[in-house]
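Recall that a protein's primary structure is simply its ordered list of amino acids. Everything else, from secondary elements to tertiary packing, is in principle encoded there. The following example makes that idea concrete.
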Amino acid sequence: MPCVQPRFPRQSFLVTLAGLLLLSGPGCGNSSAPEVAAEADGGPAAAAASGEKPRVALVMKSLANEFFATMAEGAKSHASQHVADYELIVNGIQDETDLAGQVSLVEQMVAQQVAAIVIAPADSKALVPALRKAGQAGIVVVNIDNRLDAEVLREQQVQIPFVGPDNRVGAKNVGLQLARSLQAGDEVAILEGLETSFNGQQRKLGFTEAATEAGLKIVASQSAQWEMDVANQAAAALLTAHPGLKGIMACNDSMALGALAAVRAAGRNEVKIAGFDNIKAVRQAVLDGQIAVTADQHGDQLAVYGIETALELLRGDRQAASVRDRETAVDLITKETLSR
């Protein structure tokens, strides 16, 4: 069967660090790889292990989100310092809900026979079948940022290492920090991410635990789909429905900024806001006292950690290393920490 050159969606882009990247890959063929994505033998990963410089694909969520743009820049910086070690392909989807687009990107990377895919999945369940096929094609897969669903991985008989933070602990610490500016019994609301995203679920749990421990009253918890505009509309409705609202805990910084715009428009500056991601726009809002706290999960390094794990798997004993996860740091960001 002839090799098909895929067409990239408009929002994808390539980073080539050693000459012109050949879109068609080294050739096509049938794979007899086993079911375990990170342990497959043969294919492009085997070629990389034999001495060829591997191509590593970074597949992210929305590149319109500053967090993932920062992640891309960190990955490109790392690749520029390791030109002799690997070539980097960077791509992402247009918005956080474009699951079909992200699945298509994975399929394109398989067709190009990259050696490894490092992915921040938009959905913890929907991406597993496509990543399973990548493993069957002999491609190393590393999961970053948003953990894939453990039950679906078991059902699909796939093992994929996760590199990223403990979102539940990070969100609980953010929520407890916000609670310091509130009083027991105060009303708060949670703006959730996509309900099918593991990191969103974990952050909601962390915020809930913090509110319970601090004696705060959660009067609403709803998804704003990680998006600023959706969060703005949701927060405006919450402020109207709950005139006693004192705090909004947003599961990412884009939603925190949307909530901030709604608070300003309503003249409700007494409402305290928490975010998660430490993007540049939120750092300024924290310095200005408009957002109380966010969490830094070091987005500029998160993809780098995933790439380093993929390269380690390509170089070493992949079967032994495939199930090893790596927990990364989450740090609180407040006006005080930024002023140091």
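DSSP finds 13 helices and twelve strands in the chain. The chain has two domains: 37-160+300-328, 167-296.
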